[in-house]
Specification:
By secondary structure, this protein is of the alpha+beta class. The chain contains 20 helices and 22 strands. It is rod-shaped and about 170 Å long.
């Protein structure tokens, strides 16, 4: 042990003459053991002789042979210190020579076996009791294991940081005060906020106020329970993009159980949710299409059809309380055919040139494409035409436009509108594409049904309604007259001389005769009255809110005017006429069959009274 070590023992009560030699040796052995256990060695530097002494423990730390030590400071520079530490060590030595305190300094060394090590160098200046010489004494502690441990810890931290940074899932850590202390790149990318605006801030400074309150309450509940937490929520980025997520959070605790904060992993389930929403929406849309297909016969025209379709679609799209169906007219302009959630007058007055519509501009004239607009403010900047506000005076912010064709050309556009930006998602476009394919099928079904219905209700030659449909209408008019007490007249008409025309000039000429009377009757009675062809040469007329005298006058005038005009058909010119009979509800009968029978009987009475109109006269006229 260097003399300075013994000086240290004497300073602690073991001066010569105080205590036995055995006690002194015992204390010195205790000191040596303590130094060995703590990796501590002793050094001294005589500032007068410049002689350096090092304890055995120091040589063990250096892994150097004590026999090679020459007692000089240069030994440290030549055999111990790492080149990067030599300048700093020189500064410490210079400070010692000036009498300044050494303090504690750490240096990198190169040990005797070539391995790197670290030491903590500390000391102070004392004066020897015997000689009065100033001596710098101190300790050298082996920090190699501690430094290696710290280095390994830092490497592990870097590895962990790298792993977390490379994870596709967003990860974050908040301390007990809810302040973000860590987050990976995936988290920053998801929320669209730079790192410096996250680290050191609470969720209130990162998320919107509404979502921040939700997150903060969830964190408070978790800290109170001290366990883990999983829940579904949404994250809205700084650009307004909404992501569906699942939060997995847990409380991080110290060894003594004290909560340190919350670590969270965010699972982005946007695509999964989108698929679920798409399938659910597609199922709902298919159900709408199926229901409308089953009820296609209930729509009197396409306007009512589109109004019902629009209402059903708006029910499926949340946050969309308004929409309209635009119709392309005259190939170059648009009007609103049906609307929901818009001012009725403004919708009725709306007109727009096709090429001024944003559908045309955004698709460069490809009107058969679905248009999805997330921010209408951008469109308004370049809008050439009017963009309506909704009935509450609010501006539309998001639009989903669905073109509808008749199978060949786009004639309509269904617009689903929202007052919220970024309302629609990718799956909404997919559903819109499905509608583009399915709605034209419904329209073809509508037209097919309308045609089939027309064929089932109308006479193919004259285009007038047929007997079956006419009787159904007559039943309805009787019920109405019974409730209201209004007058109702039923007339049966029978053409004069049709059989003779057919026999002399053929059925095509007879058909011309039928058509001539049918057109004349159509032009002569009100559109609210009923006119039908119910047999070969028989017609039925129903007059609502009309007295018997007025009905007789109307039919008499029609017969007179028809008899005065020439009928030309296939190069033959002739004149015709008809007989008729009237029945009044409820005077003659209070049901359909009774009225038809009474009118038919009177029609034959009228024909008998008009025998002076001869077929010979008709034949003579037909030969002219």
């Amino acid at each position: 042990m260097p003399a300075e070590n013994e000086d240290a023992l004497r300073l602690n009560g073991y001066r010569e003459g105080e205590g036995s030699a055995l006690e002194f040796e015992h204390a010195r052995e205790m000191l040596r053991n303590a130094m060995t256990l703590t990796g501590l060695g002793i050094w001294s530097w005589n500032l007068t002789t410049l002689f350096v002494e090092l304890s055995e423990e120091v040589f063990a730390i250096f892994r150097q042979d004590p026999a090679a030590f020459d007692g000089t400071v240069d030994y440290m520079f030549d055999h111990v210190l790492h080149p990067s530490a030599r300048k700093a060590f020189s500064e410490v030595l210079h400070a010692i020579t000036l009498g300044e305190p050494v303090g504690r300094r750490e240096f990198r060394i190169v040990r005797g076996d070539g391995s790197d090590g670290w030491i903590r160098f500390s000391g102070s200046i004392i004066r020897r009791l015997e000689t009065g010489e100033r001596v710098a004494v101190g300790s050298i502690q082996d920090l190699t294991q501690e430094r290696l441990h710290d280095q390994q810890f830092e490497e592990n931290l870097r590895l962990l940081d790298t792993l977390l940074g490379a994870m596709p899932n967003p990860v974050f850590f908040k301390d007990r005060q809810g302040i973000y202390q860590f987050c990976n790149d995936a988290f920053l990318e998801m929320i669209g906020v730079p790192r410096e605006e996250v680290i050191g801030h609470t969720v209130h400074g990162v998320a919107g106020s509404t979502m921040a309150r939700v997150y903060a309450q969830a964190d408070a509940d978790l800290m109170a329970s001290g366990g883990s937490q999983m829940y579904e929520s949404q994250i809205r980025s700084s650009t307004g993009v909404v992501r569906d997520v699942i939060f997995n959070k847990a409380v991080v605790k110290a060894l003594d159980g004290t909560p340190l904060g919350i670590v969270g992993v965010v699972q982005d389930v946007t695509e999964r949710k989108a698929t679920e929403r798409h399938l659910r929406m597609l199922h709902q849309v298919k159900d709408v299409m199926l229901r409308m297909n089953h009820g296609i016969f209930e729509y009197p025209d396409l306007s009512v059809f589109f109004g019902d379709l629009l209402a059903r679609l708006l029910e499926l799209y949340q946050d969309c309380a308004q929409g309209c169906v635009l119709e392309i007219v005259d190939t170059d302009s648009m009007r609103i055919l049906r609307s929901i959630g818009y001012d009725t007058k403004a919708s009725g007055d709306f007109r727009l040139k096709l090429q001024d519509s944003f559908n045309w501009q955004l698709t460069e004239g490809r009107m058969d494409r679905v248009v999805l607009i997330d921010d209408m403010d951008v469109v308004r900047q370049d809008a050439k035409g009017e963009i309506l506000l909704n009935a509450r005076g609010e501006a539309i912010q998001s639009v989903l436009s669905i073109p509808v064709s008749d199978g060949e050309q786009v004639h309509w556009i269904i617009s689903i509108d929202s007052t919220r930006k970024n309302r629609f998602r990718k799956e909404d476009r997919l559903v819109a594409d499905y509608l583009c394919d399915e709605i034209p099928i419904l329209i073809r079904m509508f037209h097919l049904h309308a045609r089939t219905l027309s064929l089932s209700r109308t006479d193919p030659l004259t285009g007038l309604i047929n007997r079956g449909y006419a009787e159904a209408i007559l039943d309805d008019r009787i019920r109405t007259a019974r409730r209201s007490g209004a007058a109702l007249q039923v007339a049966m008409l029978d053409m004069d001389g049709l059989k003779r025309i057919n026999d002399l000039h053929g059925h095509l000429t007879g058909d011309g005769y039928l058509l001539a009377l049918a057109r004349h009757l159509e032009q002569s009675i009100r559109s609210s009255d009923v006119l039908a062809r119910i047999g070969g040469d028989e017609f039925l007329a129903v007059f609502s809110d009309t007295s018997r005298a007025d009905a007789e006058r109307i039919l008499g005038n029609i017969r007179t005017s028809f008899a005065a005009q020439d009928v030309e058909c296939r190069g033959i010119t002739f004149r015709g006429s008809f007989s008729f009979g009237l029945a009044s509800f409820p005077e003659d009968a209070d049901n359909r069959d009774g009225l038809l029978h009474a009118a038919d009987r009177r029609m034959y009475e009228d024909k008998g009274m008009r025998r002076d109109w001869r077929a010979d006269q008709q034949t003579e006229d037909a030969g002219r």
